[in-house]
Design brief:
alpha/beta; five-stranded parallel β-sheet; two-stranded antiparallel sheet
Length: 197
């Protein structure tokens, strides 16, 4: 969570002082503290991804030990209310899906609408350890694909743009589906650098 960095505000202020480009700040946040810096980000957001991974108090508080769902949602709501209309168009609510939470996807679209967030994206948990394989969507492909019909329906109902990958379709790699390799750089806590999250 970048916002936890003690010099976060100074870093953002420095970036804004040396680059006058209007939409320049692109970051991912878990949303729990997003409201703290709405005033310095206001009018300068290129992309602000809030990775929440849950649409319910129960799932959120199981995954985010010590986190409070209502407080995080209230902070996200406060953030959205204190940025510009132009900024709001650049905010996305993101959900990493796996076997324990994917059934909440339709409700997640509704939650985005309630928070005035215009876009939702669903990613899939990737396993790099054999003991985590049981949590990947490979175990529930058919049920996941079927649930996407309700996700699409809720997207239309709540006027939220929804992005996801369905098993069995090849979308290819381009800016529409994943812009990370084209314009992002990820620096991991161990210093490793990657063009993809």
């Amino acid at each position: 969570e970048a916002i936890l960095y003690k010099n976060y505000a100074k870093c953002v202020e420095y970036i804004l002082s040396v680059n006058s480009k209007k939409e320049i700040i692109a970051q991912t946040s878990n949303g729990s503290l997003a409201n703290r810096y709405a005033s310095i980000l206001k009018g300068r957001i290129k992309r602000f991804v809030i990775s929440l991974n849950s649409a319910s108090k129960k799932t959120y508080e199981q995954e985010m030990v010590g986190g409070k769902f209502e407080k995080t949602v209230a902070n996200i709501n406060n953030f959205m209310e204190n940025i510009t209309e132009s900024d709001r168009k650049n905010v996305k609510l993101h959900f990493v899906t796996y076997t324990k939470n994917f059934r909440e996807m339709p409700d997640f679209v509704r939650l985005a609408s309630e928070l005035n967030i215009p876009t939702v994206s669903f990613g899939q948990m990737m396993s790099n350890k054999p003991d985590e394989d049981k949590y990947t969507l490979l175990n529930v492909k058919e049920e996941y694909n079927n649930l996407l019909k309700q996700v699409e329906k809720n997207g239309r109902k709540y006027k939220v743009e929804v992005f996801y990958r369905r098993f069995g379709e090849n979308l290819g790699l381009n800016n529409k589906y994943c812009s990370a390799p084209f314009d992002d750089l990820y620096i991991r806590t161990d210093g490793e650098i990657s063009p993809c999250c």
